[in-house]
Amino acid sequence: MSDDTPDKTANDLSNLTVGGHRSDPEFFERVNSLSGQNVSLCYQCGECTAGCPTAFAMDFKPNQVSRLVQLGMAEEALSCNSIWICVGCETCATRCPKNVDLCAIMDALRQMASKRHVKSPETDVQSFHEVFLSSIRKSGRMHEAGLIAALKLKTGKLTKDIPLGLALLKKGRLNPLPDPVKDKAAVQAIFGEAQTPGEDNGRQ
Ligand code: SF4
Ligand code: SF4
User: What is the pLDDT of residue 6?
Assistant: First the structure.
């Protein structure tokens, strides 16, 4: 078997329980498929965690998130704060000696968590993620004023930062009207391509 060939037997977890939780082998396959990665290759060296600028704030460190996926621990992987604390800087992917793109795995987990309505410990970050994607999908570029309004409705924090918003409007830094791209169909096509049939896509 070549170094890059997935070791199927290593992930036959159908009867495994960890800490009283049953493993979900299908979850492992879905994360691999959605992220385009082979999480089996991770051998837990910890290089990703050593370089991650936000690992200090994560409940599961990046290498531990990888391990959760390997073990098929869907509940833990989708409900940890790590996937929302990750800022997508790609440092982990750059450092990984096995070329595992943990950043893509984090993105896949965010999509799956949103799709499955898993309650995030980082509620505001998750709300922003979903509202941001929705804004891009609708107009092809971010409409700040619309994004702020949608975020406030979603989080219920209606009055927070109103003076700041008014000051930005006054200085012309917030466009009250959307300025969509000309070819919105192309944007829709990109979102369509990013959705894999039968997989969690989480696109809002
Ligand atoms: S650097 Fe790569 S191989 Fe090492 S723990 Fe992180 S994901 Fe796994
Ligand atoms: S992409 Fe996310 S997990 Fe990877 S190093 Fe950056 S913040 Fe950490």
Answer: 44
Summarize pLDDT for 8-38 with one digit per residue, the tens.
444 455 555 666 666 788 999 999 999 999 9
Domains of the chain with CATH codes = 8-115 (1.10.1060.10), 123-194 (no CATH)
Distances (CA, A) of 38 to 7, 34, 63, 102, 202: 10, 10, 14, 10, 20
The pTM is what? 0.77
CA 109 – CA 82 distance, rounded (Å): 10
Q: Which atom of ligand 1 is nearest to the CA of 44?
A: 5
Q: Which atom of ligand 2 is nearest to the CA of 95?
A: 5
Nearest CA to ligand 2 atom 1: 88
